[in-house]
Amino acid sequence: MAPNTSSRILGFDIARAFAVFGMVIVNFKIAMEAQTGAAFWLGFASLFEGRASALFVILAGIGISLMTKKVRLEPHKPQIREAQVQLLKRALALFVIGLAYTPIWPADILHFYGVYFAIAAMLCFCSDRTVLLSCVGFVLGFVALLLVFDYDQGWDWASLTYTDLWTWQGLLRHMIFNGFHPVFPWAAFLLFGMWLGRKPLTDPVVQQRYAIISLAILIFTELSLLGLRVLGEQHFSMPIETINTLLTSNIIPPLPQYMLSAGSSAVFILMLCLGLGQRYSHLWLIRSLYRTGQLSLTLYIAHVFIGMGLLEAFNLLSGQSIEIALQSALIYCLGALVFSVIWLRFFTLGPCEWIFKKITR
Q1: pTM value?
Q2: Low-confidence stretches of the chain (pLDDT beneath 50)
């Protein structure tokens, strides 16, 4: 049975497909320890670090706004409470699934999603202003935590392992402050997505406006950081390593400039995907990407169990070049696209999406 596409916006699922592909590239690079190879391909792979996952989280926020739109426009206490309970069920399911998944893939994002969704349940019926202020609060809250606590605590950076994750203190620190996707500041991406999801994003004029604004912010942020690094190396009496940490948009640590850069790049890609979905929905590739995005949860989980499982079987999980890592990611992404098209000819939901729907209802 083919899925009903009439009530879905193709662009969102196309963006989810690209977000999954980007996360596969990043995670395969990490798992295969791909630190050698052509500078061009190393630079290409680095473009997705912390940006594909940011797009993924923003899309989740948009999804929450769309899911709660009817209740938000016609608020009644029983319906509000029901929507919040539904979000909390999803939060608990994501947290438990993700935490169980963490021993297999330490860089998992699903258990962080669980906390993001719990926060969303509290704020999804607040005003736009409150949501945006909360978004800023999480970004600045991370800076405050950084000034008080040791960001390196718990980390073995050489192996990218968190040494005391399975203690209450370590888990709390990892979740809130210095894990791969900590609540401070990463919950800001979800809240920004909730705010964005309240806008008329299907309007081409709005898409064009947001695309221009986000691209301008992205370029301004990156050029400003580049200029400050050059000045810093010439005039600041600080080690170059410190300058590069404080004046870059790298994901670790997730400083405000990273949030601004990754968020603006995610919005720009999203606006392009919305335009593609509206203008070229008749093309096979666009329809296939749309279907791939519908199976994003399944494909995310499968890229570890199946993708990295095959890499381990072929002894490719260490000391590989970036070219081998990108080729492996490309093969997985093409396989994911073909699988999604075939699966959705017979079923309305992906395997993990179906299970998730069952356990949250």
Answers
A1: 0.94
A2: 1-6
